[in-house]
Amino acid sequence: MKSLVFGLILLLATVSHAQTSTNSQDAQNLMVLKFSWNKERIGWEKDPFGGPLENFDEMRARARNERRILDAKRGGSSIEVDKLKREARADDAIMAKQHQNTRARYGFVYKVSLQNNGLKVIKSIDWDYVFFDANTQSELGRRRFSSVEKVSPGKTKELRFFIPTPPTKTVSVNSWNKDERTNLGERVVIVRVEYSDGSVWQQP
To answer: How distant is the alpha carbon of residue 22 from its chain centre?
Structure first.
C-alpha cells in the first residue's frame, strides 16, 4: 500500500514538473542582441552646463516679480520699474547661490534588447546585469531585474529600467567621471523565463 501511495506521489510530481518546466533549448532561443547602461542627471535642465530646475516656489516668485515689473511699466513709473528690477535681480542671486550648494545626482538606465527565436510566447523575463573586473574577472556588481513583457516568436523587445543604484560601488551617484568604465566588464544573464502557456525555464 505504501509503495502504491509513493508511486502516485512520484507520478504527480513528474506531471507537475512537466507542466511547469521547459528544456534548455527553449531558453537558448532567447537571444541577447545588445545591452548598455547610462548615467543620467536627475532634476537638471537638458543643457548639461545649465543649473538645476527651479522648484515651484522659485517659479512662483519669479513670475510674481515679472508681473510687478510689467504693472509698474504700465503705470509709467520708471523709478518703480528700476526698483523692482533690482529686487528681482537680488532674488535671482539668492536662488543662484542656493543652487550652487546643491549637488548633482544621477540615476542609471539599464537596457537589454532580446529576440525570441523560439516557438512560445514569452510572458516575463528575470535577468541580471553583471559587472566585473575585466582583468581579474571578479564580479563587482549585479543588478537584478524582472520584466513582465510579452515577446512573441520572432519578435524583439528592449527592456529598460531607470533606478538610482549605480552598477558598482566605484561609480559615483554625485559626479561624472569619464574613467568610470575603464576595465569594467559587463554581461547580461537570463535567469528565468516564463511562457504564456505556463511553462518556465529556470537557470540551473
So the answer is: 30
**Interatomic CA distance for residues 202 and 188, integer angstroms:** 15
Strands (E), 3-138: 30-42, 105-116, 122-133
State pLDDT tens for residues 161-199: 999 999 999 898 888 788 889 999 999 999 999 999 999
d(CA 153, CA 81): 68
Distance in angstroms (rounded) separating the CA atoms of residues 122 and 90: 59
Question: Hey, which residues does 35 pair with through a beta bridge?
Answer: 112
Q: Record the cell numbers describing residue 10, joined without a space.
A: 512520484
**14-65 tens-digit pLDDT:** 333 333 344 445 556 899 999 999 998 876 544 444 444 445 566 677 778 7
